[in-house]
Amino acid sequence: MRGRFRSTRPRPRGVHLAGWLFADMLLVLALVAMGDQGDPVAAERAAAAPTATPSASATTSAAPAPAPTPTGPRGVEHDPVTVDVTGDSSDTAGLTAQIRAATEPYAGRQAAVVLTFGSNRDPGIGQAYAHAVNGLLAQARPEMFRGTTTRDFLSLADNPRHASLEIYFYTG
Known about the structure:
This protein is α+β, with helices and mostly antiparallel strands. The protein has helices at 18-35, 40-48, 92-102, 123-134, 137-140, 142-145; strands at 81-86, 111-119, 149-155, 162-169.
């Protein structure tokens, strides 16, 4: 006679709740992420609301209200601007001048992230060169690279004393 096989081991309790727990945690994370965003609609309403300002005479007209500034976090552009510099790491003036000249078309913008790839077959030398170049960014354009996150990487291209910078700017 064939009967059903029943295990004598006890089944773990609460295993069936693991999926629901994961879904609830994901929902909480989504709500926290949405709550962290600013409310641009409320900022526009506050900026558009008329304010009572005393006028010196009845003939003066009020200046137009300034454009509302977004209250949420700034975005970062998807496509980087690539800049190449070449020279000895001890020639800081020459490298700084190259960085300044290459970033001239982007003056007035602020960089969010800079990824620098130092070229060399030796990983230590390549990353050290990238680090030296990143150290010159604030010297070349302090307004552009203030508070910018930089990362030093290695490029295995056989082109010593060369660095390729990928600059990701803030949007707007």
